[in-house]
Amino acid sequence: MDKKATSANGMVASDDPANVKLSVWEKTAYSFTDMAGNLLYVTISSYILYFYTDVFGISAAGAGAILLVARIFDAISAPVWGSIVDHTHTKWGQSRPYFLWLAIPFAIATFLAFTAPQIHGTFKLVYAGFTYILAAGVVYTGIQTPITAILPSLTTNGQERINANSFRMVGGALGSFITSTFALPLVTFMGKGDDKVGFMWTMSIFGVMAIILLVLSFKGMKERTIAVQKPIPFKDSLKATVGNHPWFILVVSFVIYWVAQSTRNGISVYYAKYNLGNEQLTSVFNGLQVLGIIATIMIPLVVRVTNKTMTMIIGLAIGAAGQIMMGLVGNNFTLVIIAWIIGIFGASIAVAMPFSMLADTVDFGEWKSGIRAPGFLTAVGSAFCIQLGSGFGAYIPSTIMSAAGFVANKTQTPQALSAIHFTFIYFPVIIYAIVAAIMCFYFKYEKMETQIKADLAERHAKETAGEEV
Fold this sequence. Notes:
Growth Hormone, Chain: A, two-stranded antiparallel ribbon, mainly alpha
């Protein structure tokens, strides 16, 4: 049996050497978690609106309402899952068991979400809403939460954590690339003209792949630094938000940003099908998202030259430039693709920054209130924002399209085509401008970070000295 030692903060840690270098296999296993998650979740975020309107036969307004209500429910579940994982203690660890426990439910729930049974009216709306909440909310959030939570338990070596997270990012990008590139061609091939059948077969294939990846990730990783401490009461977690202005700025900005991100992903299939005349171009649009890795690699350099806030604003500006260019080049396919790639570079920078900046708001919250609540602050600042923003990113464009007279699988009127064009091209530009304006308020808090870290280090030193006396 391993010996245990109790630290000054009440945490219990194993004496096993946790400061280890992870094997290539273990880091690869970690990458499988995000690969599996994106394999199914990106399919949902990219194609569920199209599936509802053009395959299942739900109106654009009805589909948008379903996604909005579901996303609000999903957003609420994010901090709940964070608490569940924090209170999990098994022989396999805290986070790792969920990759095994939720692998099959995740695949089944996603399959059901893309199944179109012969039902009508209210029953159709209820079925769509229930299966969507189950797949994209309850089960996916249960997968996504431990993906982030497990990293500190794999090793205490800071460089190894960075390396493992890089593997994870590559795995996630590959998962997105697979579903974005091959989903619609598989639907066409497997369905042989019947998209209902095509989606069922495609999701069966992706589901089996996700199960295998999650089981391999469960088997390939080991939680070495499992610490147990008294959970922070929920009311104390809320106190960490009081006066935490940079956290509120990030939360508001990230929610609004994900309205644009969801719109770009969800409306691309409509733009390709109705405005460009070829829905298979959606696979090209989404497949090119993998190029965002190039921009992500450049982020540390840009931050060193400028700062984190400016880096995010630069990303928003590049993304807006790509969108505007796409709107100006007409149907010239080559120029459309170039503009789309520029937009990908900008979006990849902008979407990455809030994740790294959230850690600084945890420090600010502790500095301001004396309460450190990383789980709650990061859960709300990431999963909550993504879910809520994505809901509005589906609802608002679908409402605009519906008001313009959009009817699925019909020749669209000029008004409907203009609505699709606006929501896909210029609506994200407006969102980017709003987010950039909000982020300007973050500059002064970023300038305070050095002093905050120094103050916290001094405070922790005094607390430790007091406990030793």
